[in-house]
Amino acid sequence: MTRPENLLEAAEGGDGRLIQLDGLRAFAAISIILQHSTNVESSTRFPLGIAGVWLSFALSGFLITGTLIGVKDRAAGDKAATGFAWRAFHARRVLRTFPVYHGTLIAVYVLDLPEVRAHVGAYIVHIADVAVALPGRAVPSLFHLWTISVVVKFSVVWPAIVLLAPRRWIIAASALMVLLAPISRSLMLTTPGHRESAHSLPPSSVDGLGMATGSRTGNGHDSAGSPWGPGS
After folding, report:
1. Exposure of 222 by Cβ count < 10 A (0-12 exposed, 13-18 middle, 19+ buried)?
2. What string of DSSP letters covers 11-49?
């Protein structure tokens, strides 16, 4: 078994760099930028921004789940090793996300952009995905950051599910996310005054994550070749 202090590094490097994902990252980023800076979405009638967001969620789910499944397989049931890797995973997520994210919040607060100071608290504690769905709570200069709140919540909850639950329950949780999101979006779209909630609320935005996590989990195999893994 891999040494506990090297478990996360080994899991992250297990597949090597998946360079084919770089093109998908570029498409997602460009789609979102075009949606916010041009009228291409209204002229083409294609939900370019939402497609970019959905794809970015799918990439996050795929990569995070791949790392966690690698940790789970290499830990081989060693609770101490799993706990060490779990703490290391969260430490890395904080170092990768929080400095840039909170640096941006500090910058817009100091610049006193319109409405920022009144509503910045929701962004600090990562409930922006809920705040933008409430009337009068969206901040135009920070609107796009609701996606970070969704991924942060996912990054907190999902590792516990992957590392502690048997593989069949991980696949079931992924399927639940895929089924829940369209239902939630439909309800929000048919409720007056809640169109923004149709995409930003966590229950409405997890199908991309669910499809990616289910695919990534289903590709795993235990030593006997079963995709369900040991102890499931």
Report:
1. middle
2. HHTTT---THHHHHHHHHHHHHHHHHHSSHHHHH---HH
Which tokens go with 156? 């907190």
Map tokens 């516990």 to a residue.
160
Contact 88, 8 (CB under 8 A): yes
CA separation for the pair 50, 191 (Å, rounded): 20
Q: Which residue has the tokens 């890395």?
A: 92
Q: Each residue of 79-93: pLDDT tens digit?
A: 888 888 888 889 988
d(CA 221, CA 232): 12
**Cα–Cα distance, 201 to 54 (Å, whole number):** 13
Closest CA to 135 of 194, 200, 202: 194
Give residue-wise pLDDT tens across range 11-49. 665 555 677 788 888 888 888 888 777 765 555 566 777
- Check: pTM over 0.90? Answer yes or no: no
Number of neighbouring beta carbons within 10 Å of residue 205:
26
